[in-house]
């Protein structure tokens, strides 16, 4: 349904360092840059960060990235912790979503809820 998604950041260097670190275990990387606008992806850039242009703090966004395995979810979590991210929920199965939903949730430098999720069984 979605082709790409972009979020705004108050601190592009901090956000780009965070996403460089936490998306690598999921197989994604920085693919395009237009000044302070950065696109990440696996095959093409489908997640973008750009400078915040409106005043105020904005609203929390929730972004869930697909992980190829439960080990990749754990690696995402470990990378986020290593980068100093606040852990919202450590990696675990979320049976209330479905029996094999395995996810971890952290907060990015702008306060967004960022998740890595694997839907495959263990």
UniProtKB/TrEMBL annotation:
UniProt-listed CDD domains: VOC_like (cd07262)
Species this chain originates from: Micromonospora halophytica
VOC domain span: 1-119
InterPro entries for the chain: Glyas_Bleomycin-R_OHBP_Dase, Glyas_Fos-R_dOase_dom, VOC_core
Protein name listed in UniProt: Catechol 2,3-dioxygenase
Keywords tagged on the record: Dioxygenase, Oxidoreductase
Sections of the chain in a coiled coil: none
SUPFAM superfamilies for the chain: Glyoxalase/Bleomycin resistance protein/Dihydroxybiphenyl dioxygenase
Molecular function in Gene Ontology: dioxygenase activity
